[in-house]
């Protein structure tokens, strides 16, 4: 009986940990990245976390993706993009750091017509200690936490069975 309880505990613990794993979002869902979609509405109510990904799907003859800073997002200024424009038609961004991220389309007046997306990325799990921390270093405490929960519940179920 003990081994069966142990297996069930592992499955339950894994399932409980699953919602904390990274999410992949397709911007605009089935509409993708185009004119006539309200991306403020799309982002509303979604909780983005470090490690999640954003995928922009679009016709690259008519659209692209520029990462910009807040003021350039507000004014739809396309001349200060952070890095090169993304033009593949299928661009994926991994949300590597917490904070606000701004994306606009650089074609014509598409940005002022609504092809603009701002999201707020939340830090995953407990806030990291102040000071320089690598992105890889931040993920480790969360993983050990999951394994601690798995080990503790497994031990508990063996004792109880
Ligand atoms: Cu566009």
TrEMBL record:
Single annotated GO MF: electron transfer activity
SUPFAM superfamilies for this protein: Cupredoxins
Can you give the residue ranges of the Phytocyanin domain?
23-123
Note the InterPro entries from the entry: Cupredoxin (IPR008972), Phytocyanin-like (IPR039391), Phytocyanin_dom (IPR003245)
Q: Extract one GO BP annotation from the record.
A: response to symbiotic fungus
The stretch of residues making up the signal peptide is 1-22
Top-level taxon of origin: Eukaryota
Q: Write out the GO cellular component annotations.
A: plasma membrane
How this chain sits in the membrane, per its record, is:
Single-pass type I membrane protein
Predominant place of localization = membrane
**Keywords linked to the UniProt accession:** Copper, Disulfide bond, Electron transport, Glycoprotein, Membrane, Metal-binding, Signal, Transmembrane, Transmembrane helix, Transport
Where in or outside the cell it occurs: the entry states: Membrane
A Pfam family hit: Cu_bind_like
The protein in question is named: Phytocyanin domain-containing protein
């Amino acid at each position: 009986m003990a081994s069966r309880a142990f297996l069930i505990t592992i499955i339950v613990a894994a399932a409980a940990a699953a919602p904390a794993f990274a999410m992949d979002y397709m911007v605009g869902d089935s509409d993708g990245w185009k004119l006539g979609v309200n991306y403020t509405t799309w982002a509303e109510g979604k909780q983005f976390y470090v490690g999640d990904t954003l995928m922009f799907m679009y016709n690259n003859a008519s659209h692209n993706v520029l990462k910009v800073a807040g003021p350039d997002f507000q004014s739809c200024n396309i001349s200060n993009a952070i890095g090169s424009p993304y033009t593949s038609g299928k661009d994926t961004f991994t949300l590597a750091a917490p904070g606000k991220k701004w994306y606009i389309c650089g074609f014509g007046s598409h940005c002022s017509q609504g092809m603009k997306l701002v999201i707020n990325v939340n830090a995953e799990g407990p806030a990291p200690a102040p000071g320089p921390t690598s992105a890889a270093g931040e993920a480790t405490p969360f993983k050990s936490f999951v394994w601690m929960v798995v080990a503790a519940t497994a031990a508990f179920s063996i004792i109880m069975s």
